[in-house]
Design goal:
The protein has 403 residues and is α/β, with parallel strands linked by helices. It has two domains: 139 residues, Aspartate Aminotransferase, domain 1; 257 residues, Type I PLP-dependent aspartate aminotransferase-like (Major domain) (Aspartate Aminotransferase, domain 2). Helix content is 41%, strand content 16%. Strand 3, helix 6 and strand 4 form a beta-alpha-beta unit.
Protein backbone atom coordinates (compact mmCIF):
# COMPACT_ATOMS: atom_id res chain seq x y z
CA UNK A 1 0.00 0.00 0.00
CA UNK A 2 1.33 3.39 -1.01
CA UNK A 3 0.29 5.53 1.95
CA UNK A 4 1.51 8.79 0.44
CA UNK A 5 -0.69 8.21 -2.61
CA UNK A 6 -3.63 7.05 -0.50
CA UNK A 7 -3.38 10.12 1.74
CA UNK A 8 -3.49 12.42 -1.30
CA UNK A 9 -6.80 10.79 -2.22
CA UNK A 10 -8.35 12.12 1.04
CA UNK A 11 -8.89 15.89 0.55
CA UNK A 12 -8.89 16.61 4.31
CA UNK A 13 -5.12 16.09 4.31
CA UNK A 14 -4.71 18.75 1.63
CA UNK A 15 -6.88 21.20 3.58
CA UNK A 16 -5.09 20.36 6.84
CA UNK A 17 -1.52 19.79 5.70
CA UNK A 18 -0.01 18.93 9.09
CA UNK A 19 -2.90 16.95 10.49
CA UNK A 20 -1.98 13.70 12.21
CA UNK A 21 -5.39 12.11 12.51
CA UNK A 22 -5.51 9.27 15.03
CA UNK A 23 -9.22 9.24 15.85
CA UNK A 24 -10.41 6.84 13.19
CA UNK A 25 -12.41 4.73 15.64
CA UNK A 26 -14.68 7.75 16.10
CA UNK A 27 -15.01 8.43 12.38
CA UNK A 28 -12.86 8.19 9.29
CA UNK A 29 -12.16 10.79 6.62
CA UNK A 30 -13.62 10.42 3.16
CA UNK A 31 -11.80 9.53 -0.06
CA UNK A 32 -12.39 11.56 -3.22
CA UNK A 33 -14.53 8.80 -4.79
CA UNK A 34 -17.00 9.00 -1.88
CA UNK A 35 -17.18 12.80 -2.05
CA UNK A 36 -17.62 12.58 -5.85
CA UNK A 37 -20.40 10.01 -5.45
CA UNK A 38 -22.38 12.44 -3.28
CA UNK A 39 -21.98 15.30 -5.74
CA UNK A 40 -22.71 13.12 -8.76
CA UNK A 41 -25.85 11.74 -7.17
CA UNK A 42 -27.27 15.21 -6.53
CA UNK A 43 -26.12 16.58 -9.87
CA UNK A 44 -27.21 13.66 -12.01
CA UNK A 45 -29.63 11.25 -10.37
CA UNK A 46 -31.49 13.02 -7.57
CA UNK A 47 -35.12 11.98 -7.11
CA UNK A 48 -37.04 10.04 -4.52
CA UNK A 49 -36.83 6.26 -4.90
CA UNK A 50 -39.47 3.56 -5.42
CA UNK A 51 -42.38 5.88 -6.10
CA UNK A 52 -41.59 7.45 -9.42
CA UNK A 53 -43.00 6.46 -12.79
CA UNK A 54 -40.34 8.57 -14.47
CA UNK A 55 -36.78 7.79 -15.48
CA UNK A 56 -34.96 9.95 -12.95
CA UNK A 57 -36.70 8.21 -10.07
CA UNK A 58 -35.98 4.84 -11.64
CA UNK A 59 -32.30 5.81 -11.87
CA UNK A 60 -32.21 6.91 -8.23
CA UNK A 61 -33.85 3.60 -7.25
CA UNK A 62 -31.31 1.71 -9.33
CA UNK A 63 -28.42 3.55 -7.59
CA UNK A 64 -29.89 2.75 -4.16
CA UNK A 65 -30.38 -0.93 -5.05
CA UNK A 66 -26.84 -1.10 -6.45
CA UNK A 67 -25.52 0.24 -3.12
CA UNK A 68 -27.35 -2.51 -1.27
CA UNK A 69 -25.79 -5.14 -3.52
CA UNK A 70 -22.32 -3.56 -3.04
CA UNK A 71 -22.69 -3.70 0.77
CA UNK A 72 -23.98 -7.29 0.62
CA UNK A 73 -20.97 -8.30 -1.49
CA UNK A 74 -18.57 -6.44 0.80
CA UNK A 75 -19.54 -8.47 3.87
CA UNK A 76 -20.25 -11.77 2.10
CA UNK A 77 -24.04 -11.76 2.49
CA UNK A 78 -25.69 -14.20 0.10
CA UNK A 79 -28.54 -11.91 -0.87
CA UNK A 80 -28.91 -8.11 -1.05
CA UNK A 81 -32.31 -8.37 0.69
CA UNK A 82 -30.40 -9.32 3.85
CA UNK A 83 -29.00 -5.78 4.07
CA UNK A 84 -31.21 -3.23 5.81
CA UNK A 85 -30.07 0.37 5.48
CA UNK A 86 -30.14 2.25 8.78
CA UNK A 87 -28.54 5.45 10.06
CA UNK A 88 -25.70 3.79 11.99
CA UNK A 89 -24.68 0.88 14.21
CA UNK A 90 -26.76 2.27 17.07
CA UNK A 91 -29.93 2.24 14.99
CA UNK A 92 -29.16 -1.25 13.65
CA UNK A 93 -28.91 -2.65 17.18
CA UNK A 94 -32.06 -0.82 18.29
CA UNK A 95 -33.83 -2.30 15.28
CA UNK A 96 -32.97 -5.83 16.45
CA UNK A 97 -33.99 -5.03 20.03
CA UNK A 98 -37.30 -3.72 18.76
CA UNK A 99 -38.17 -6.00 15.85
CA UNK A 100 -36.69 -9.25 17.08
CA UNK A 101 -36.11 -9.34 20.83
CA UNK A 102 -39.20 -7.55 22.11
CA UNK A 103 -41.40 -9.98 20.18
CA UNK A 104 -39.48 -13.17 20.93
CA UNK A 105 -38.52 -12.84 24.59
CA UNK A 106 -40.65 -13.48 27.65
CA UNK A 107 -40.21 -12.38 31.27
CA UNK A 108 -37.27 -14.20 32.82
CA UNK A 109 -35.46 -14.74 29.51
CA UNK A 110 -31.83 -13.68 29.25
CA UNK A 111 -29.61 -11.63 26.96
CA UNK A 112 -25.90 -12.34 27.05
CA UNK A 113 -23.52 -9.42 26.43
CA UNK A 114 -19.88 -8.81 27.31
CA UNK A 115 -18.38 -6.18 29.61
CA UNK A 116 -16.43 -4.67 26.70
CA UNK A 117 -19.49 -3.44 24.80
CA UNK A 118 -20.05 0.09 23.57
CA UNK A 119 -23.12 1.78 25.10
CA UNK A 120 -24.99 1.18 21.85
CA UNK A 121 -24.71 -2.56 22.43
CA UNK A 122 -25.82 -2.25 26.07
CA UNK A 123 -28.50 0.43 26.41
CA UNK A 124 -30.96 -0.92 23.76
CA UNK A 125 -30.92 -4.26 25.63
CA UNK A 126 -31.37 -2.55 28.98
CA UNK A 127 -34.42 -0.72 27.62
CA UNK A 128 -35.88 -3.96 26.23
CA UNK A 129 -35.01 -5.81 29.45
CA UNK A 130 -36.83 -3.27 31.57
CA UNK A 131 -39.90 -3.42 29.41
CA UNK A 132 -40.04 -7.22 29.10
CA UNK A 133 -38.53 -8.12 32.49
CA UNK A 134 -35.49 -9.82 31.00
CA UNK A 135 -32.15 -10.45 32.68
CA UNK A 136 -28.90 -9.23 31.18
CA UNK A 137 -25.77 -11.27 31.81
CA UNK A 138 -22.26 -10.11 30.98
CA UNK A 139 -19.32 -12.28 29.96
CA UNK A 140 -16.10 -11.04 31.54
CA UNK A 141 -12.68 -10.32 30.12
CA UNK A 142 -9.33 -11.79 31.10
CA UNK A 143 -6.49 -9.78 32.65
CA UNK A 144 -5.06 -9.18 29.17
CA UNK A 145 -8.34 -7.71 27.92
CA UNK A 146 -9.51 -10.70 25.91
CA UNK A 147 -13.00 -12.12 26.07
CA UNK A 148 -13.16 -14.88 28.68
CA UNK A 149 -14.68 -17.62 26.52
CA UNK A 150 -15.07 -20.01 29.44
CA UNK A 151 -17.10 -17.36 31.29
CA UNK A 152 -19.19 -16.66 28.20
CA UNK A 153 -19.91 -20.37 27.78
CA UNK A 154 -20.85 -20.65 31.45
CA UNK A 155 -23.32 -17.78 31.11
CA UNK A 156 -25.27 -19.35 28.25
CA UNK A 157 -28.38 -20.90 29.79
CA UNK A 158 -31.62 -22.46 28.46
CA UNK A 159 -33.18 -18.96 28.91
CA UNK A 160 -30.62 -17.14 26.69
CA UNK A 161 -32.54 -15.56 23.82
CA UNK A 162 -29.71 -13.57 22.24
CA UNK A 163 -25.95 -13.15 22.44
CA UNK A 164 -24.77 -9.65 21.44
CA UNK A 165 -21.05 -9.08 21.20
CA UNK A 166 -18.67 -6.67 19.57
CA UNK A 167 -16.42 -7.94 16.79
CA UNK A 168 -13.64 -5.60 17.94
CA UNK A 169 -13.53 -3.47 21.08
CA UNK A 170 -13.41 0.30 20.59
CA UNK A 171 -11.31 0.60 23.78
CA UNK A 172 -9.14 -2.50 24.06
CA UNK A 173 -8.82 -3.21 20.35
CA UNK A 174 -9.51 -6.86 21.17
CA UNK A 175 -10.76 -8.92 18.23
CA UNK A 176 -13.31 -11.46 19.40
CA UNK A 177 -13.56 -14.94 17.96
CA UNK A 178 -17.07 -14.60 16.55
CA UNK A 179 -17.03 -17.96 14.75
CA UNK A 180 -16.34 -19.70 18.07
CA UNK A 181 -19.25 -17.83 19.68
CA UNK A 182 -21.68 -18.63 16.86
CA UNK A 183 -20.68 -22.32 17.05
CA UNK A 184 -21.64 -22.34 20.74
CA UNK A 185 -24.87 -20.46 20.04
CA UNK A 186 -25.96 -22.46 17.03
CA UNK A 187 -25.89 -25.70 18.98
CA UNK A 188 -28.44 -24.08 21.31
CA UNK A 189 -30.47 -22.27 18.65
CA UNK A 190 -29.54 -18.82 20.03
CA UNK A 191 -29.11 -15.93 17.56
CA UNK A 192 -25.87 -13.93 17.70
CA UNK A 193 -25.70 -10.20 17.02
CA UNK A 194 -22.29 -8.78 16.16
CA UNK A 195 -21.44 -5.11 16.59
CA UNK A 196 -19.15 -4.68 13.62
CA UNK A 197 -18.58 -0.92 14.01
CA UNK A 198 -14.86 -1.32 14.73
CA UNK A 199 -14.24 -4.29 12.45
CA UNK A 200 -15.64 -3.86 8.92
CA UNK A 201 -13.15 -1.22 7.82
CA UNK A 202 -10.17 -2.96 9.35
CA UNK A 203 -10.25 -6.67 8.47
CA UNK A 204 -11.92 -8.98 5.98
CA UNK A 205 -15.45 -9.69 7.23
CA UNK A 206 -17.60 -12.48 5.84
CA UNK A 207 -20.90 -12.83 7.67
CA UNK A 208 -21.62 -16.21 6.10
CA UNK A 209 -18.31 -17.60 7.40
CA UNK A 210 -18.80 -15.97 10.81
CA UNK A 211 -22.22 -17.64 11.05
CA UNK A 212 -23.82 -14.71 12.87
CA UNK A 213 -27.50 -13.79 12.56
CA UNK A 214 -27.16 -10.01 12.84
CA UNK A 215 -24.18 -7.85 11.88
CA UNK A 216 -24.41 -4.10 12.54
CA UNK A 217 -22.08 -1.39 11.21
CA UNK A 218 -21.80 2.32 10.39
CA UNK A 219 -20.79 3.85 7.09
CA UNK A 220 -18.96 6.79 8.63
CA UNK A 221 -16.37 4.53 10.25
CA UNK A 222 -15.61 2.93 6.88
CA UNK A 223 -14.90 6.04 4.80
CA UNK A 224 -18.57 6.63 3.85
CA UNK A 225 -20.80 9.56 4.89
CA UNK A 226 -22.52 9.88 8.25
CA UNK A 227 -26.22 9.06 8.39
CA UNK A 228 -25.91 5.65 6.76
CA UNK A 229 -25.18 2.21 8.14
CA UNK A 230 -26.30 -1.34 7.63
CA UNK A 231 -27.77 -4.29 9.43
CA UNK A 232 -27.21 -7.75 7.98
CA UNK A 233 -29.83 -10.31 9.00
CA UNK A 234 -29.62 -14.06 8.36
CA UNK A 235 -32.47 -15.58 6.34
CA UNK A 236 -33.65 -17.46 9.41
CA UNK A 237 -34.56 -14.27 11.27
CA UNK A 238 -35.25 -11.93 8.35
CA UNK A 239 -38.71 -13.39 7.73
CA UNK A 240 -39.77 -13.55 11.37
CA UNK A 241 -38.99 -9.98 12.42
CA UNK A 242 -41.70 -7.40 12.97
CA UNK A 243 -41.52 -3.92 11.45
CA UNK A 244 -39.30 -1.31 13.13
CA UNK A 245 -40.70 2.14 12.26
CA UNK A 246 -44.07 2.53 10.60
CA UNK A 247 -44.77 4.78 7.62
CA UNK A 248 -44.37 5.06 3.90
CA UNK A 249 -42.41 2.54 1.81
CA UNK A 250 -42.59 -0.27 4.39
CA UNK A 251 -46.25 -1.08 3.74
CA UNK A 252 -48.01 -3.23 1.19
CA UNK A 253 -51.46 -1.79 1.81
CA UNK A 254 -53.07 0.50 4.34
CA UNK A 255 -56.71 0.90 5.29
CA UNK A 256 -58.26 2.94 8.05
CA UNK A 257 -58.32 -0.21 10.14
CA UNK A 258 -54.78 -1.43 9.70
CA UNK A 259 -51.87 -2.21 7.37
CA UNK A 260 -49.97 -5.07 5.76
CA UNK A 261 -46.23 -4.87 5.34
CA UNK A 262 -43.58 -5.36 2.69
CA UNK A 263 -41.00 -8.13 2.93
CA UNK A 264 -37.43 -7.33 3.94
CA UNK A 265 -35.56 -5.11 3.45
CA UNK A 266 -38.29 -2.51 2.70
CA UNK A 267 -40.27 -3.75 5.72
CA UNK A 268 -37.60 -2.18 7.92
CA UNK A 269 -36.94 1.00 5.95
CA UNK A 270 -39.85 3.35 6.60
CA UNK A 271 -39.77 6.79 5.01
CA UNK A 272 -37.30 8.35 2.59
CA UNK A 273 -33.83 7.00 3.32
CA UNK A 274 -30.45 8.73 3.01
CA UNK A 275 -30.29 7.86 -0.69
CA UNK A 276 -27.10 9.75 -1.58
CA UNK A 277 -25.34 8.48 1.55
CA UNK A 278 -26.28 4.89 0.71
CA UNK A 279 -24.92 5.35 -2.81
CA UNK A 280 -21.65 6.72 -1.42
CA UNK A 281 -21.56 3.89 1.14
CA UNK A 282 -21.57 1.38 -1.73
CA UNK A 283 -18.77 3.33 -3.42
CA UNK A 284 -16.73 3.27 -0.17
CA UNK A 285 -17.17 -0.52 0.07
CA UNK A 286 -15.92 -0.99 -3.48
CA UNK A 287 -12.98 1.33 -2.78
CA UNK A 288 -11.98 -0.82 0.21
CA UNK A 289 -12.33 -3.97 -1.87
CA UNK A 290 -10.05 -2.46 -4.53
CA UNK A 291 -7.35 -1.76 -1.93
CA UNK A 292 -8.00 -5.17 -0.40
CA UNK A 293 -9.17 -5.81 3.15
CA UNK A 294 -6.30 -8.25 3.72
CA UNK A 295 -3.81 -5.54 2.74
CA UNK A 296 -5.52 -3.06 5.06
CA UNK A 297 -5.41 -5.54 7.94
CA UNK A 298 -1.69 -6.24 7.31
CA UNK A 299 -0.94 -2.50 7.16
CA UNK A 300 -2.87 -1.69 10.34
CA UNK A 301 -1.37 -4.65 12.21
CA UNK A 302 2.11 -3.29 11.45
CA UNK A 303 1.05 0.18 12.64
CA UNK A 304 -0.37 -1.33 15.82
CA UNK A 305 2.83 -3.25 16.56
CA UNK A 306 4.83 -0.05 16.01
CA UNK A 307 2.55 2.03 18.23
CA UNK A 308 2.57 -0.58 21.01
CA UNK A 309 6.38 -0.57 20.89
CA UNK A 310 6.74 3.23 20.82
CA UNK A 311 4.12 3.84 23.53
CA UNK A 312 5.61 1.27 25.87
CA UNK A 313 8.93 3.16 25.74
CA UNK A 314 7.31 6.27 27.25
CA UNK A 315 7.74 6.33 31.06
CA UNK A 316 4.52 6.04 33.09
CA UNK A 317 2.27 4.94 30.21
CA UNK A 318 -0.16 2.06 30.77
CA UNK A 319 -1.61 0.41 27.69
CA UNK A 320 -4.91 -1.49 27.91
CA UNK A 321 -5.84 -4.57 25.92
CA UNK A 322 -3.92 -7.45 24.35
CA UNK A 323 -0.16 -6.96 24.07
CA UNK A 324 0.15 -8.59 20.64
CA UNK A 325 -0.94 -6.82 17.46
CA UNK A 326 -2.34 -10.09 16.02
CA UNK A 327 -5.00 -10.09 18.71
CA UNK A 328 -6.21 -6.55 18.16
CA UNK A 329 -7.18 -3.84 15.74
CA UNK A 330 -5.45 -0.47 15.47
CA UNK A 331 -7.21 0.97 18.51
CA UNK A 332 -4.93 1.65 21.46
CA UNK A 333 -6.19 3.12 24.74
CA UNK A 334 -3.70 4.23 27.34
CA UNK A 335 -3.24 6.33 30.44
CA UNK A 336 -0.28 8.29 31.72
CA UNK A 337 0.64 8.50 35.38
CA UNK A 338 -0.56 11.83 36.84
CA UNK A 339 -1.68 13.36 33.53
CA UNK A 340 -5.37 13.38 32.68
CA UNK A 341 -6.22 11.90 29.25
CA UNK A 342 -8.04 15.14 28.32
CA UNK A 343 -4.86 17.14 29.00
CA UNK A 344 -2.86 14.75 26.83
CA UNK A 345 -5.39 15.11 24.02
CA UNK A 346 -5.54 18.90 24.14
CA UNK A 347 -1.76 19.27 24.34
CA UNK A 348 -1.38 16.95 21.33
CA UNK A 349 -4.03 18.99 19.51
CA UNK A 350 -1.78 22.06 19.85
CA UNK A 351 0.56 20.16 17.54
CA UNK A 352 -2.22 19.14 15.13
CA UNK A 353 -2.34 15.60 16.45
CA UNK A 354 -5.92 14.37 16.91
CA UNK A 355 -6.55 11.63 19.46
CA UNK A 356 -9.62 10.98 21.64
CA UNK A 357 -9.92 11.05 25.42
CA UNK A 358 -12.79 9.96 27.63
CA UNK A 359 -14.71 6.78 28.29
CA UNK A 360 -15.35 6.16 24.57
CA UNK A 361 -18.99 5.25 25.30
CA UNK A 362 -17.82 2.27 27.32
CA UNK A 363 -18.39 3.39 30.89
CA UNK A 364 -18.92 -0.13 32.34
CA UNK A 365 -15.58 -1.26 30.90
CA UNK A 366 -13.76 1.78 32.31
CA UNK A 367 -15.37 1.20 35.72
CA UNK A 368 -14.14 -2.37 35.58
CA UNK A 369 -10.63 -1.20 34.66
CA UNK A 370 -10.82 1.19 37.62
CA UNK A 371 -10.24 4.34 35.57
CA UNK A 372 -12.60 7.14 34.58
CA UNK A 373 -11.04 7.77 31.20
CA UNK A 374 -8.34 6.78 28.73
CA UNK A 375 -6.56 8.46 25.85
CA UNK A 376 -7.08 6.60 22.59
CA UNK A 377 -5.18 6.45 19.30
CA UNK A 378 -6.87 4.67 16.42
CA UNK A 379 -5.56 3.98 12.94
CA UNK A 380 -6.87 3.52 9.43
CA UNK A 381 -5.66 2.72 5.96
CA UNK A 382 -4.20 6.24 5.47
CA UNK A 383 -2.28 6.24 8.76
CA UNK A 384 1.48 6.10 8.18
CA UNK A 385 4.30 4.88 10.45
CA UNK A 386 5.47 8.52 10.41
CA UNK A 387 2.11 9.62 11.91
CA UNK A 388 2.63 7.19 14.78
CA UNK A 389 6.24 8.23 15.36
CA UNK A 390 5.23 11.92 15.34
CA UNK A 391 2.44 11.31 17.87
CA UNK A 392 4.60 9.17 20.17
CA UNK A 393 7.47 11.69 20.03
CA UNK A 394 5.09 14.51 20.97
CA UNK A 395 3.57 12.41 23.73
CA UNK A 396 6.97 11.59 25.17
CA UNK A 397 7.86 15.32 25.31
CA UNK A 398 4.54 16.20 26.99
CA UNK A 399 4.88 13.41 29.55
CA UNK A 400 8.49 14.40 30.29
CA UNK A 401 7.53 18.03 30.78
CA UNK A 402 4.47 17.40 32.95
CA UNK A 403 5.69 14.50 35.04
N1 LIG B 1 -20.13 0.07 18.61
C1 LIG B 1 -18.82 0.35 18.67
C2 LIG B 1 -17.87 -0.74 19.05
C3 LIG B 1 -18.37 1.63 18.37
O1 LIG B 1 -17.08 1.92 18.45
C4 LIG B 1 -19.31 2.63 18.01
C5 LIG B 1 -18.87 4.05 17.69
N2 LIG B 1 -17.98 4.62 18.57
C6 LIG B 1 -20.65 2.28 17.96
C7 LIG B 1 -21.03 1.00 18.25
C8 LIG B 1 -21.72 3.27 17.61
O2 LIG B 1 -21.57 3.70 16.31
P1 LIG B 1 -22.54 4.86 15.76
O3 LIG B 1 -22.32 6.02 16.66
O4 LIG B 1 -22.05 5.09 14.37
O5 LIG B 1 -23.92 4.34 15.83
Amino acid sequence: MNIIRIKKYFPIFTTHKNLVYLDNAATTHKPQCVIDALTAHYAERNANIHRGIYRLSEQATESYDTARAQIARFIGARDASQIIFVRNTTEAINLVAHSYLRHHAKAGDEILLTVMEHHSNIVPWQLAAKEKKLTIRYAHITKTGELDMADLKKKITPRTRLIAVTHASNVLGTINDIAAITRLARARNIPVLVDGAQAVAHMPVNVSALGCDFYAFSGHKMYAPTGIGALYVSKKYLTTMDPFLGGGDMIRSVSLEGATFQDAPERFEAGTPAIEAAVAFGVAADYLTRIGMKNIRTHEKKLTALALKELSKIPGITIYGPTRAEKRTGVISFTSQNIHPHDLASLLDEQDIAIRAGNHCAMPLHTLLGIPATARMSFSLYTSPADIRTACRALRTIVKKLQ
